[in-house]
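At this stage, I put together a protein sequence along with its fold in token form, as given directly below:
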Amino acid sequence: MTSSPSQAEAGCPLTPSTPGRRVEVPEALQRGRADADPARPRWHVTPPWGWLNDPNGLTVQPGPDGEPLVHLFYQHNSHAPVHDLIQWGHQYSADLVRWTDLPIALEPGPEGPDALGCWSGVIVDGPTDPTDPDGPTTPTMVYSGNMGGPTQVGCLAVPAVPPDEDPLLTRWVKDGANPVVDVAHVSVGQDLPEMRDHSVWREDGRWYQVMGSGIPGAGADGAQGGAALCFSSEDLRTWTYEGPLAVGDGDVSATGTVWECPELSTVPGDGGTADVLCVSAWHDGDTMRSMWMTGVRTGTRMTVTAQGCSDLGENYFYAPQSVTLPDGRRVTIGWMQLNGTQEQRIAAGWAGSMNVPRTVTLAADGTLRFAPIAEFETLRGDQVADLDGEAAAAVELRGRSLDVVLSGELGGDPVVIDLLASEDGSRRTRLMLSRRAPVGDAGQDAWTGWLSLDRTGSVEPGSPCEGEETRELSGPVPLGEDGGVELRILLDRSSLEVFVNGQPLSARVGSDPADERVVVHGAGLTRARLRAWTMDDAYGERLAAR
């Protein structure tokens, strides 16, 4: 992180020029700061400047040459790197690795059901003519409008011109029927503490969607349980409440009291596919973690029989959204939250990035496994290590933008890797992989590996690069036969993602820009092999500031 300026130095007028905005910084100033910030990731999705949070509208659509492009919309504030009057930012990619910025796709208000923000949502191929639900289709945004109440409302937007005239989908118009899902007490029939975010699909000739919420008294022992509320429609515009698809137990340390960004998807795996409900657990204003759930679904009801943590980094992989690629892979992208003060973010000119896109599969043990999409290997630059045996188990590398793969068989001693370490070793971010006794017979409880990340020594106390929190992140990871393990580290300045046999741990790390040593202590690993590469940029020229 960079140092924190005063409000005047940040270019933040005490009275914002845009009505309703609390903080406003000139775009050119934000852009310049973002480009110069040494903590800004180079190959994770970031905004060109300003604020970024939840991925939205992840969709595959024909590009100008007819070849498929992946569109990623996202929660954005172009006026300052703070969460305020949210817009939909927009980028596209041919490979989910190299991205191109596009202009803002959706703006709030100034009046109506999204006057205080265009919140999270999805894009589906909806009917071009609402009176002909089985006729031609067009990309259709389904998003949450914020109009100031405790629950949001469902809204629609469609391309302003036919997609063959605007194949990059840069112009959108809001539906005159908005809101199509009203506040909770109208649409659900009861007052709820929260209701927002959407997952929409078509099944047996009818549209269905779930919205995230929490139902008082529906959890264990009368607790408020997080819930995915289900609705159905013939035309995406008139919705009938069908009841909750699933409800959590209200455990504030695990499943939370509200489920944000619910997503029902079909995930491929060994022996077939499975319905997977992914939710982001929330409690009392705190984003907690992303969780996956599997079970038996009958129509609009799902009995959850297994669940797990999507990422050991807790809320550093949050609000994920997924899409099926033309080749059949299911790929998910999450929001890697920020770790710094508002002053630090304003000084940096940007806030928030996405995790790397991950393929999702269902493993034989019933758990979900995640892996960086194979296309990320095309970003590899110079190979800086290719070592076997003892040489691979004790090595020092340098870099703040690296792809490192360490494999072997884990014994009784742990593997310790210090990242972003100073020359004298006084500062380091420590990753440790060890064995553990299983705590259960199934799912993640049966895994016999343990991964932990210690950020307490990443910077000197009081450093301007210090993040707001340095809690230890840890949890179980699967080991193969005889302790077989593949550990992959994706280090991109302040963004760190670690994968152990398909279980990720993500984190934001504050560190001095001069600290770039990577030291591997792998005495506990036999048959070791280590490979490492530098990484190239994922962006060319970024969007021009207005």
Summary: The longest strand covers residues 50-62. DSSP finds four helices and 34 strands in the chain.
